Amino acid sequence: MDQPDAMPDAAFTLADVPTRAKLAGRYRDGLVALQAALRTLQLAYMRQGLRGIVVFEGWDASGKGGVIRRMASVLEPRALNYWSIGPPPARWQGRHHLERFWQLLPEAGRLAVFDRSWYGRVLVERVDALTERAAWQRAYREITDFERMLLDDGVHIVKLFMHISAEEQRRRFKKRLADPEKRWKLSVADIRNWEQRDAYARAIEDMIRLTSTERAPWHVIPADNKKAARVEALRVIHDTLAEGVDLRPPTIDAETATAARTRLGLDLPGDLQ
């Protein structure tokens, strides 16, 4: 029988992870370079029929949406699915908590980005007592089994947790409140979660300890500095999804090259002569 993936750090605590990181180099240069690399990566997935999943979890106002926007803005939308995950609708009540996610998994040649995910079972459902203790405790094994099945089937998975300090989170809430165009982003649920930050911290630590495996580890991104966080998150996404993938552009077939020269009258580049 196959053995489960080893857990890399059973002693993980959020206190060991900084919330602020310094940006190396110019933000614009780093961002543009990573966006171009992600575009190349996606084209490789499309050509080779690969499947990739990006999972975002994090504190409220930690910048998940900002990273997603800067990634999605350069990707081919026809080969990208974006899922914003909230509470399960009524039709999923009473069914296995992972069942609704099967229909959201990417098809060949596509990427799927999850803004929150199946980890809600061991986060909000645990903290707000929306499910029984035995159910969320069992979910750690169910989730690692679920991800292992996907990995064994060739799916590439990258998981990111956006980590900000309590002070920075409160500052961002204040900024949202002051901006009429961003007030909609602040909700009573955000305030309730703020009040339960210690409980969420314990749940997050357990999540990372129990579901971070060698093949699908959690990447905790220091996110107090938005620009540094965006660059680091995009780097992790690219490097993880690119592992083992041939990123070289495909060569044009001889028949098409000949037709371009003889029927369109085009001069062929030197490497196609």
UniProtKB/TrEMBL annotation:
Alphabetical UniProt keywords: Kinase, Transferase
InterPro entries attached to this UniProt entry: P-loop_NTPase, Polyphosphate_phosphotransfera, PPK2-related
Keyword Kinase tagged: yes
Domain Polyphosphate kinase-2-related as annotated: residue spans: 26-242
GO molecular function, one term: polyphosphate kinase activity
Pfam family, one: PPK2
PANTHER family in alphabetical order: POLYPHOSPHATE:AMP PHOSPHOTRANSFERASE, POLYPHOSPHATE:AMP PHOSPHOTRANSFERASE-RELATED
Family stated for the protein in its record: Belongs to the polyphosphate kinase 2 (PPK2) family. Class I subfamily.
Name under which the protein is recorded: Polyphosphate kinase 2, PPK2 family
